[in-house]
User: Fold this.
Amino acid sequence: MAEKTRDSNIELLRILTICGVVVLHYNGNVAFNYVAAGSANFYILNVLEGLFICAVNLFVLISGYFLIGTTKRRAVKALELVIQVMIIGAGKYLVTCILGGNGLSLQSLVGSVIPNNYYVTLYITLYLLSPYLNIALQKLTDKQYGILVVMNLLLFSVWPTILDTVGAATGYVFNGLYTTNSGGSQNGYSLINFVMMYLIGGYLRRTENSRKQKPAAAAALLAVCVGLLFVWQVAGHTAIARAYCNPLVIGEAVLLFVVFSGLSFRSRVVNSLAKGAFTCFLLHDLFLWYIGIEKVVTGNPAVMLVHMLISVPLIFLASWCAWKVYDWVTAPVFRWIGRKLTALDRMISVDC
Assistant:
């Protein structure tokens, strides 16, 4: 398959998804520490949590959708991710030192530069391995590929979630029965889950011309998933409900993608804004402790929602501005590095 040009519908989905990540951390990093259990705000936060918990899965699914069609990889792309993690990590540490009035620690500064980011580590690993996955997948018929996806879902999503649920209810540890590893499901924070979402994205790309697009039906099913996850969370099993390997969470990612893939439009503004998504992923938590979340989550629900609807897009726009400055400074450097790494590109790519 030829490499697919990104339409603005998927870029808009990327913007929504990264805003969803901001909402998740608005909730998890701050709001849930202050909101009263059983309050209206508590239930609203759980609904939003259930809607956006699929964000990381969705990002990987989108990557699978676009990367499935090519076996060419560029080393500089992986390097760019790592360098941005390092620079923003150091920048956030310096800003918090200034705003918090804390003294600068060389040890802490060095620690902030270390690219200790699970998503980036797993994504780069998948990025480097994916050409070989693609070659293997090309050998499969659509039916065989579909069976592979179903097997992955049963083995690495449904089964671990069953064990997590039964274990939480009974207190029994089933470590020897997990298909992911001997330590449990890891709530889907694993390369196994990334590969599974990549496979699903590739399958959606491969079969998009042969299956009927039903965005309205997908939206209805999405609402059902959000409702079920809401009930699951308030019932007390929040970690399992919010696990990336939860079948409902994976289903949400697929359904959101189907809804947006049914759209068709082009917008330079949307495509430009979407380029700041990764920077927002790295930078957004810097803002969350300085926008008064702890005050609004204990007050009027309408005020909290307005606060969220204003602050989340503003955080995204601030991150996009930071990306524009960062890109203006670093793009010429990475272009030069990219030209120097062409031999390495040939090594990590696969010539079919």
Q: What stands out?
A: The two ends are 12 Å apart (CA to CA). Residues 301-340 form the longest helix (40 residues). The chain has one domain: 8-348. DSSP finds 17 helices and no strands in the chain.
